[in-house]
Amino acid sequence: MWEKLQNIDRRWIYLLMAIVIMIPILKPMGLPIKTSEETQTVYDAIGALKSGDVLWIGGDYGPSSAPELSPMAVGLVTQAFKKNLKVVVYCMWQDGAQLMQTILEDAGKKYNKTEGTDWVNLGWKPESVIVLRNLTDNIANAAKTDFHGKAIDSIPLMQQVKALDPKYVAFAFDLSTGSPGTSDYLKYIYEAKKIPISVGVTAVSAPGAMPYVRAGQYKGILNGMRGAAEYELLNKIPGPAVKGMDAQSLGHFMILILVILGNIGYLMSRKG
Prior knowledge:
Strand order of the largest sheet: 3-2-1-4-5-6
Structural class: alpha/beta
Largest sheet: 6 strands, parallel
Number of domains: 2
CATH class of the largest domain: Alpha Beta
Number of helices: 12
Low-confidence stretches: none
CATH architecture of the largest domain: 3-Layer(aba) Sandwich
Order of helices and strands: HHHEHEHEHHHEHEHEHH
Shape: elongated
Distance between the termini: 11 Å
Mean pLDDT: 90
């Protein structure tokens, strides 16, 4: 019996894991998630902005990291629209432009916000890092057109937001999964222009970003799926990140149980 416990066919383990993970995805359990200080700092920083202020969002990620970063983007746009902030998005990753456009369109319909007046997606541009740097001087000259190819100087919101500069932009947030991304915002937006910034990164990238949080250069951080789930709950819009954390927690619990059973089987078989 104990030897059988140590030699369970791995296919049964994979099947059990799939079932355990699917349950909370289909029916969220609402397992408790404590909000970290870093996530609360992000929420409070954006919450302190005034109606009509401009929130700049960098969508610097692709489909592979969307499960972690897209829920953050939804939370950012939701909080911004609830506070009647203006949102400008620029993407240094080509795939990020479409991901952000979908999020903006969905949130715009939900909160009755109009593209061009309340929000703009500048999309992706070749030589994206150089464009980011040039946006700090003049957006119309650096980007020229938005996601749809519409001339920047013909868009009402962009007639008010002339540059990525503290005179026009109150806060910047970069959703990043690598380079180009957070390091460019730190160099060109925070250090050069003194615009307060924060970031949302995948869990594997968070350790590299934490020193900048501790130094006060980043106003908080959203750390992977956990940070996205915390932000969903602060915005009172539990969604895919909260479901993902439920699934992750149950999956870890199942692995723990299997490890314990395997060790019990090993010890009991030695006694036999």
